[in-house]
Write a structure and sequence with these properties.
Length: about 100
């Protein structure tokens, strides 16, 4: 399904926002279907933990944070002269 949505967005049949919304709706529907296959106790626990599926904005925020942290981590590993923020602040305050 994700490949279909990606292709439709790339060819301009739908916007990327529409593709993301459809993917989010499909994910939440799949979660509901899976929950119906659970035992009554398992279903009750799952519903208590998460009463409804994540919104598109919540998913984007979570993924953005993970991507930002991963990018920062990679950037720090590549930088041979990386100086931790605490040391950088101390160096700057001594220069003034």
């Amino acid at each position: 399904m994700s490949n279909e949505l990606r292709m439709m967005a790339q060819t301009g049949r739908i916007t990327w926002v529409q593709a993301a919304e459809q993917a989010s709706e499909a994910r939440n529907l799949i979660m509901e279907v899976i929950r119906t296959r659970s035992t009554p106790v398992g279903l009750s626990i799952a519903q208590k933990m998460k009463k409804q599926g994540k919104t598109l904005n919540e998913i984007v925020a979570i993924k953005s944070q993970k991507l930002c942290v991963a990018t920062l981590h990679i950037t720090q590993k590549r930088s041979p002269q990386h100086v931790p923020m605490s040391k950088a602040l101390a160096i700057n305050s001594k220069e003034e």
